[in-house]
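To whoever is on call:

I kicked off a structure prediction for a single chain this morning and the downstream step that reads the tokens threw a length-mismatch warning. I double-checked the sequence; it's 280 residues and nothing unusual in it as far as I can see. Pasting both halves so you can look.
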Amino acid sequence: MSAPRLRAGLALFGIIGAWAAPASAQQPLSFERYRTDVERVFLAPRGGGHGPGASPCVTCHVESNTPMKLQRPETRDDGTVYWTEDESRKNFDVVSRLVVPGLPARSRLLLKALAVGAGGAPYHVGGKFFDSQADPEWRRMAAWVRAATPPPDGKVPERPALDFDFFRTCVQQLFISKRPGRMECINCHGSGNARGFAQELPPDRAYWTLEESRRNFEILSRFIDAGHPESSRFLMHPLAIDAGGDPYHGGGRRWQSRDDPEWQTLAAWVRGETPACKIG
């Protein structure tokens, strides 16, 4: 090859190499940084009498089926708790699904426990721990997220939409459907609190209006991980422990197995489907 052609070829190679560089420079979420900067936030004491080194984060997210289902930590002789590297890697896989790399403001991990006035999500079962985005713990988690490369064009993987019409006509039947030895959902979840997804009905009506249904839907959606029945508290809380349900549910166990047709109906709905209605 002549010298001019060689120089042209090298120049072209340089252009291609420069154009391809961003792909090779993409930064995934760092496990090492997660383990040193993020995971300790879940173990930080916050009061409440949950034991040495334990916090509401680790207590709730170990015991209950939530989108951030964490491994049960180990306990040292002095009472402090920790995760082994293998356990931390399992936690990392779970937590990473709640993060949009490079975009803290669009990451569920950063928004759920952040005060609404500071840009946080409307509701978090465990309460709000961060009053401001200036909180040192919040900033540490945000820095971890920000260090990773965002998805192309800032696009976030879409979650299936919960069908409101199916909720109104089918799912709500569950709230007033009685099973032998079990209290109807409406008896406990009919109050106006944050868990009141089955508003009390007046004596002259047996079902909810459109407006009431929308309010029920809004509240119940807080306890659903769209697309994932196994991490949705609505499905796992009343499920028998032997079938993978949460350790405690004040209303007892409505389903003894995930094979229950009613559970299967609700699971399909959570996955974004509209199956045949099997309630009661």
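Update from on-call: the warning came from a stale cache, not from the record. Cleared it. Sanity check on the structure: The radius of gyration is 24 Å.
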